[in-house]
């Protein structure tokens, strides 16, 4: 039997060994993104006051997409198209313009070297509605496009007319100074990203029929987070993938009848409730793999010592990291497929037992998972409960994960880094974008806007008081112009 002294000695040695390994691995932790080896084109002069006026004018055009398309006003899109042609004459002289699926747009600036794969820039024309009754909550009317307090205010000023207008401003500035790209530049602007994505899909079909295979596609997605919790400062997050999407319907059939004589098992609503709770109580496991894990690895070397130590030694601190990162819903969403029960339907009357009760459960499917896996896990969770599980609409699988070593990534990251002055990291877009339609015709797809926003600021997107600061407006024009000039010149 070992003596207490020997046990203590062995324990001290083991602790010292572990401490040594932790220290060595922490010191060895380096950012995976080093010198990108890209010469970024210089800034291009443009009229900043005019750019603000133009975004203001675009916001005033009410290209609002509704779930029921009969509520849309097509004349607003016609007005936007006419406005674009009048406002950006140099663009329309340098680039060909095509209209697809009624109001989707394709602009092409042909490069001098057809051997170079083109790049595709994307920005959609439509905006989400303002919730009726909340107009008075806005500091400035949501469709007035007021320029006040150092910003352009209104629905779409960020999502996504901010990108649309600043991309056109960049193209106009380049065209006016005689820029001639070697690589073809294509701008795709869908008209219904917020609801269906038909415009982007139609544009992709046209480009595919022409044999286009883009080297880089850039759409909206992630931003420069001013108060990134990992670095404690700004970090530019570039989406290298986006989650899939699917809504599972759970249906519990029942006999129905009068509520004065309910069945012993509680009826369809009780069965449905048990099924929904069972599914929600079996979440997908959190993981440090995939784009969410890549983001952590890229930024951790820039964080404080406890963060660096934990990430350098996941063999010891993995559970702690997962706990910390999943402390907020947004953080957890980066690390796994999410399950969100959203809609319930039972009886049409309070004193009638329903003959069927249904629930809708929305999934955002992480890369590495599939809709089949979602269905299999849901079936396993409900076990023997008498419910049916179906996909009313075919689910959309997660996107492919784009490279963080390709020339396209290096170019984008180099420009984003110079313009934002922030460290660069890959990330996962937990919502959906029009860029998913480009997968058949693109090598790498990225999702990024060079906006510097605090975590609190991001709540205004699709929310109240959406606005683009003039500093962010300048930054966006500078970014798109330098990206086009850099990528288009090589």
**What Rg do the Cα atoms give?**
26 Å
What is the helical fraction, as a range of percent? 25-40%
Major sheet size, sense and barrel closure: 8 strands, mixed
Task: Determine the N-to-C terminus distance.
Answer: 73 Å
**Total number of helical segments?**
14
Mean pLDDT: 93
Strands, total number: 17
Explained architecture:
The chain has 14 helices and 17 strands. It is globular, with a radius of gyration of 26 Å. Strands 1, 2, 3, 6, 7, 8, 15 and 16 form an eight-stranded mixed β-sheet that branches. Helix 1 packs across helix 9 and helix 13 packs antiparallel against helix 14. The termini are far apart. A hairpin with a 2-residue loop joins strand 4 and strand 5. It has two domains: 285 residues, Zn peptidases (Aminopeptidase, 3-Layer(aba) Sandwich), CATH 3.40.630.10; 147 residues, Alpha-Beta Plaits (2-Layer Sandwich), CATH 3.30.70. With 490 residues, it is an alpha+beta fold.
């Amino acid at each position: 039997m070992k003596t207490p002294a020997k046990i203590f000695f062995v324990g001290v040695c083991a602790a010292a060994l572990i401490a040594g390994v932790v220290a060595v691995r922490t010191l060895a932790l380096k950012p995976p993104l080093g010198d990108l080896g890209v010469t970024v084109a210089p800034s291009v002069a443009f009229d900043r006051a005019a750019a603000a006026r133009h975004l203001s004018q675009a916001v005033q055009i009410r290209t609002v997409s509704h779930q029921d398309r009969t509520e849309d006003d097509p004349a607003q899109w016609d007005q936007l198209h006419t406005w674009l042609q009048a406002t950006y004459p140099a663009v329309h002289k340098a680039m060909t313009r095509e209209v697809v699926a009624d109001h989707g747009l394709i602009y092409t600036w042909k490069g001098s070297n057809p051997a170079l794969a083109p790049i595709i820039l994307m920005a959609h024309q439509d905006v989400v509605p303002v919730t009726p009754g909340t107009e008075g909550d806005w500091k400035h009317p949501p469709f007035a496009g007021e320029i006040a307090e150092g910003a352009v205010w209104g629905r779409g000023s960020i999502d996504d007319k901010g990108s649309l207008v600043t991309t056109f401003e960049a193209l106009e500035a380049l065209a006016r100074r005689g820029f001639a790209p070697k690589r073809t530049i294509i701008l795709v602007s869908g008209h219904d990203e917020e609801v269906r994505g038909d415009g982007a899909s139609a544009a992709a079909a046209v480009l595919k029929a022409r044999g286009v295979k883009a080297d880089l596609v850039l759409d909206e997605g992630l931003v420069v987070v001013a108060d990134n919790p990992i670095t404690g400062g700004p970090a530019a997050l570039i989406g290298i993938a986006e989650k899939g999407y699917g809504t599972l319907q759970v249906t519990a059939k029942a006999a129905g009848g009068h509520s004065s004589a309910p069945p012993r098992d509680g009826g369809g609503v009780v069965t449905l409730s048990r099924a929904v709770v069972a599914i929600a109580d079996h979440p997908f496991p959190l993981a440090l793999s995939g784009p969410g894990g890549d983001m952590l690895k890229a930024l951790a070397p820039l964080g404080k010592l406890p963060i660096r130590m934990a990430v350098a030694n996941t063999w010891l601190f993995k559970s702690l990291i997962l706990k910390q990162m999943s402390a907020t819903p947004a953080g957890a969403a980066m690390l796994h497929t999410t399950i969100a029960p959203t809609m319930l339907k039972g009886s049409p009357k309070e004193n009638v037992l329903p003959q069927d009760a249904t629930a809708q459960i929305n999934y955002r499917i992480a890369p590495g998972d599939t809709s089949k896996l979602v269905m299999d896990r849901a079936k396993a969770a409900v076990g023997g409960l008498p419910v049916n599980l179906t996909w009313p609409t075919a689910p959309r699988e997660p996107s492919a994960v784009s490279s963080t070593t390709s020339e396209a990534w290096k170019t984008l990251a180099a420009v984003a880094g110079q313009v934002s002055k922030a460290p660069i990291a890959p990330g996962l877009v937990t919502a959906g974008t029009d860029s998913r339609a480009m997968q058949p015709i693109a090598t790498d797809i990225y999702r990024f806007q060079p906006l510097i926003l605090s975590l609190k600021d991001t709540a205004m997107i699709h929310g109240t008081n959406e606005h683009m600061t003039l500093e962010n407006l300048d930054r966006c024009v500078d970014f798109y112009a330098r990206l086009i000039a850099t990528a288009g010149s090589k």
